[in-house]
Design brief:
The structure holds 2 protein chains of 2 kinds. In chain A, about 70% of the residues lie in helices and about 0% in strands. Chain A is mainly alpha-helical. Chain A has a single domain, classed as Ferritin, core subunit, four-helix bundle (Ferritin), CATH 1.20.1260. By secondary structure, chain B is an alpha/beta fold. Chain B has 2 domains: about 80 residues, Fe-S cluster assembly (FSCA) (GMP Synthetase, Chain A, domain 3), CATH 3.30.300.130; about 55 residues, no CATH class. Chain B contains 5 helices and 7 strands. Classes of the chains: A mainly alpha, B alpha/beta. The interface between A and B is medium-sized, with 26 and 27 residues. The structure holds zinc ion. The site of zinc ion (ZN) has 8 residues of chain B, from loops.
Chain lengths: ~260, ~160
């Protein structure tokens, strides 16, 4: 399928939001290094962080090949208003159960998103999606295992998990905020769209939540945390970007 | 200079993280183009975030330069997506020799099942358990063998 000029604008918008999500969650995950509740979790979050940063890099590389400039410059030299990440990834790591719930909601959405994009009409994206979906499955698997275990552990852990779930859910719904090019993405076969993704995600996460003995709030009663996809962010993003940019300015060759 | 002679030379380049396996046996060499003046090798990443990618490109270029190939250049591309099914039989043996359980064939939807009973690289027992799907590097998981009572790492199946 031929992609129109508008289609390419739509692809850039899509790539930015995906890459920005990966970059920011990668940095948040890396903040668990040395702080995880057990050593295995320390390693798991560090390892996932490295994966996410690698995935963001691969997506910024595509943007770069589309004429958006040097990948590192795109990643580290923009202000918050130029970022398209969702609010879910911006929040500080908080308590472990918050980070875990975020990881669960986010990675289940990402797995499904990359599975959908494996069929994209834009080949460079479909190639990367085919690659990344095989890796992300380990992330969602890790999250699913923990949610199941903690949901059915002690009464206290169950309450804490339910509270974390309630807190995270409106943020998680913000993942599916549409960009301005949603129709173009669909009509040109680039991406089936956020509505389809959200529906698949609801079905995937609700099964696991239910099995874990937790409860998903009624979707229609929740106001999703929107704005991120259009450059409106929480107060937490800019300070994180400042920190990242500082490291980049001091040593542009630093490994992320 | 033929593509085959380049391939032979690349058997001498090993994965920086697992020195017992060559990049050819690892299955990451996806394209070799040669002419009288140029030598171009395309690699595909094992894991998208693999930090050794740039290092491997340099290793390939240096090896080909050393062997006298004209203008060697190595680049990385996702056009062919690597999976653990692309590791050769020799490669699987080399992983085991390095103390890593080699990845079993995978459909891509059976990771959890496969990791539950990875064969122990030391005693071949399948009476093992998964400790963590994440190990010290992106491609490894951590396991424990209930028969020889040792921890071991596996090269994770990926597709
Ligand atoms: Zn054993």
């Amino acid at each position: 399928m031929n992609i129109s000029e508008k289609g390419f604008e739509a692809i850039k918008d899509l790539l930015y939001k995906m890459a920005d999500d990966q970059l920011i969650i990668g940095h948040r995950n890396s903040e668990w290094t040395g702080l995880g509740p057990v050593l295995e979790e320390d390693i798991a979050f560090s390892s996932m962080a490295q994966d996410k940063l690698g995935h963001s890099q691969a997506l910024y590389d595509v943007l770069s090949q589309m004429g958006e400039g040097d990948p590192d410059t795109i990643a580290f030299m923009r202000n918050a208003e130029q970022f398209h990440c969702c609010h879910l990834v911006e929040y500080p790591i908080g308590e472990y159960e918050f980070s875990l719930m975020r990881h669960f909601f986010f990675d289940n959405a990402e797995l499904l998103r990359f599975e959908m994009l494996a069929d994209s009409s834009f080949e460079p994206l479909s190639f990367i999606a085919k690659k990344i979906k095989g890796e992300i499955k380990y992330h969602s698997m890790h999250a699913d295992i923990w949610i199941s275990q903690l949901g059915s552990a002690s009464e206290e852990s169950k309450i804490r998990m339910q509270n974390a779930l309630n807190e995270t859910f409106p943020l998680a719904l913000g993942v599916f905020e549409k960009g301005i090019f949603e129709d173009v993405l669909k009509s040109e076969g680039i991406f089936e769209g956020e509505d389809v993704l959200k529906e698949r995600w609801m079905s995937a996460v609700s099964q696991i939540i239910e099995k874990a003995g937790l409860k998903l709030p009624e979707v229609n009663s929740i106001t999703p945390s929107l704005g991120g996809r259009r450059g409106k962010h929480t107060e937490y993003l800019q300070p994180l970007l400042d920190e990242m940019t500082e490291v980049f300015r001091i040593d542009p060759s630093a490994e992320w | 200079m033929t593509a085959e002679s380049v391939r032979q030379a690349l058997y001498e380049v090993s994965d920086p993280e697992i020195p017992t396996i060559s990049i050819v046996d690892l299955g990451i060499v996806t394209k070799i183009e040669t002419s009288d003046t140029e030598t171009h090798v395309t690699l595909t990443p094992t894991f998208a975030g693999c930090p050794a990618l740039r290092i491997m490109e340099r290793l390939v270029e240096n090896k080909l330069k050393e062997k006298g190939f004209p203008n060697p250049k190595a680049t990385t591309s996702f056009d062919v997506q690597w999976n653990t099914g692309m590791i050769s039989e020799e490669g699987l043996q080399a992983l085991k020799k390095h103390g890593l359980a080699p990845p079993p064939p995978t459909t891509g939807n059976d990771y959890a099942e496969l990791l539950k009973h990875m064969p122990c690289p030391y005693c071949d027992s399948k009476n093992t358990e998964l400790k963590s799907p994440f190990g010290p590097t992106l491609c490894r998981s951590i396991h424990y063998c209930n028969d020889c009572h040792q921890s071991f790492e596996a090269f994770k199946p990926v597709k």
